[in-house]
Design goal:
about 80 residues; alpha+beta; 3 helices; 2 strands; elongated
């Protein structure tokens, strides 16, 4: 689990974690009791005082390859910005 709020920092942490623990994850994910596995990245909507029409984010290829090779899904949880009027 990343302690950082920034999506890109979380993605970097996840890539480092997957590379470091790849062997352990391969063994764990082969257990018959494991039905599914995914990483969920929670991050905030970027709101700079104006109305955000589109917020684009993408996942680095390295993360996609690592997750795919391990059979790990990816979730994105985008939280709305809290407006203070």
């Amino acid at each position: 689990m990343s302690e950082r709020d920034n999506l890109w920092e979380q993605l970097e942490d996840a890539i480092q974690f997957l590379n470091k623990h790849r062997g352990d994850l391969e063994r764990i994910l082969k257990l018959p009791t494991i039905e599914s596995c995914y990483l969920d990245f929670g991050y905030d909507c970027r709101l700079d005082g104006s109305t955000v029409v589109v917020q684009r984010d993408y996942l680095p290829v390295e993360l996609l390859r690592l997750c795919s090779s391990l059979g790990i899904g990816i979730g994105l949880s985008l939280f709305p910005a809290l407006r203070v009027d």
